[in-house]
Predict the structure.
Amino acid sequence: MDAHLLSRRRVLAAGAAVAGLALAGCATPGGPSIGRVVVVGGGFGGATAARYLRLWANVDVTLVERNPDFVSCPLSNLVLGGFRQIDSLTRGYDGLVAAGVKVVRGEVSAIDATARQVRLADGSTLPYDRVIVSPGIDFLTDQIGGLASPAAQERFLHGWKAGAQTVALRRRIEAMPDGGLFALAIPKAPFRCPPGPYERACVVAAYLKQAKPKSKLLVLDANPEVQSKKALFEKAFKELYGGLLEYRPNSELKEVDAASGVARFEFEDIQADVLNVVPPQRAADIARSTGLINVANRWVGVNWLSLESTAVPGVHVLGDAVFPGPAMPKSGHMANQHAKVAAAAVIQLLKGEPVNPAPVVMNTCYSFVSASDVIHVASVHQYNVEQKTFVPVQGAGGVSAAASALEGRYALSWAENIWADMLALQRA
Amino acid sequence: MPYRPWSAAAALLLAAPWCSAQDGTAGRNLAATCANCHGTGGVSRGELPSLAGRATAELVAAMADFRSGARSATIMHQIAKGYSDEQVRQIAAWFAAQPRP
């Protein structure tokens, strides 16, 4: 069906349902709005929720996002290696606007769950029937001595939120002398993107091997072992980057000194040309100020049938901020899956219907071990009534047999599909 | 084929089970778990295959072959084992009802 062939008069005559079909290629039902939903955060979780609320029902959706564009964390390690430009990971919110989402660029200052409204920093308010909060993570910089200061955060970049940090970190890697040292400090799990640090080590090593072969890359992991795709990453470390990359487990960063650049780890002091510090993490600030954090003083507990907060009624929380089910990773893919469960549940709650009693989520994370070769980890999680959480299906899921360029191409196709899925991107 | 907006619109409405409130939501919700790799509504970009508009029997057979190992895969043999037979049937029926890209 070609939308361009429908004349305006015909579209009007056909009514809202058919207009929705023609414009979005999907059946956004017509009729009156079933309610108002405000979505806080336009990342993998929030954008997907906004899109699917519009796709599956006539909901009045407002998405609040502080950044002008979406920048993908997945594939951003390739920018650090110089194998991709940040622009190629950046997408706009125009698709969501075309799908009928009101996109507001702004900073949420408070969520008033009693008055049911979201307050923005500019003083405006957005009333809601239900609010979906997908805020991502913020850093526990106070857990590393000296890292709370702006000078230290300027010197020791995290690169763990894609965008300006990624570009700045790439510049420092590029400026590193041949024969220099790049060190990566990994926090104790759980953190956003379990395979991410090890992918980063590989991709930066791939760049150094090619451009600055006398350099060294030191991976200082607070954990006792590689946290995802262990055997595959260890194989890459050894076979692709042996002699260049060194992995040290049980190496927790304790303190940094912004003036000297020295970093004190549990067993040694390191002075690197570039020290990339990924700090420990928790649910982002707005989750804390809204009183949503109720697990380990770091994460948000949710009812898994609806993703509604167990602390604050009417507030649904998605993605990395959530205290996960067993073996459930903090990934963009998983945030997208959370969002679909939440969107379906919010629609049913707004209609006064029971929510789906048997939701399913699944995860796929692709990681680059070089500029072209990729490994995956996958899992499927079914809702378990007794345990009241998603439980990974035993015997399902797993990792790649070996790194391959074929999975490299699949990873890029995955990225294009998930960005289009969450942002309602129209075909070029 | 001549363009007939009303029949096309009607076909899409008929082909979109999630239009009819509760009836199609189980298949719809399950199929949405596939969209991250296979595209929204099963219409993919890039190298991963589209699923929209493929016959239910074809999709059910593909999943069975991934599970048994009869069909080799990088990842689908692992994912196919995570869904029940009934879930696979619901997913396949939902994609079969979508317009082929």
